[in-house]
């Protein structure tokens, strides 16, 4: 039975992935994600419903607009496939629960933020600050036990303690990062990360809690240092002026931490125990 629900969720994920593509294009441009209907960015023609079937339409159109023949980026089918996998995998792992809803919402926001940062170097506040608030809200219904709430408020009710842990994680992942990163950037005479990255870290803390949030930050920073540093070397960019999409790597780290974080942390403790 979980397999059937996962397949159904995957189909819904395909459809929702099409909406996420709209968000990826429109949010950084301050456009409404509700109206008008989807359109070709090149010729502005509205896309008909049968040209907007997830994955299938891209294949039938040969990856080009039917009217102006402008290429349709491969990001569109990639996001649809990623979102289908996200929905299916989450429902298979957590069932039809509030926890599944939490991680689907988190995953969708990570997908959008990943691609907006890749394409525009922007992390829209609607998703970072809004996501932080949503993460805090979910902590009232999905227990967040990773944090010092038991020491700071030993008599607090479980939802209050969970909310406190979520809020502390959001603070500790974002605020110290500002001081450290700006101090390091000043010392090395390089560009500091943007404020969007700081807000994203707060969002990761609110959703993931302290332990998994730190893991997401470490994975993102490591990935950015290796892949981003390699890109700068290969392309011969100036590291003092070339801004890397740190948010992209943080989003990837956030997805890994959300779904595999507890296993990774347990493995690490066993390895070092």
What is this entry, summarized?
The chain has 273 residues and is mainly α. 70% of the residues lie in helices and 0% in strands.
Any overview of this molecule?
With 273 residues, this protein is mostly helical. Helix content is 70%, strand content 0%. The protein has two domains: 95 residues, no CATH class; 177 residues, no CATH class. The chain is built from nine helices and no strands. The longest helix has 41 residues.
Taking all residues together, what is the mean pLDDT?
88
Runs in which pLDDT lies below 50 for 5 or more consecutive residues are none
Shape descriptor reads: globular
Number of domain modules? 2
Question: Order of helices and strands, N to C?
Answer: HHHHHHHHH
Main sheet characteristics: none
Main features:
single chain; mainly alpha; 273 residues; 2 domains; globular
Topology, pairings included?
Elements: H1 2-26, H2 56-60, H3 75-94, H4 98-120, H5 125-138, H6 149-152, H7 158-188, H8 195-235, H9 246-272
Helix pairs in contact: 1-3, 1-4, 3-4, 4-5, 4-9, 5-7, 5-8, 7-8, 8-9
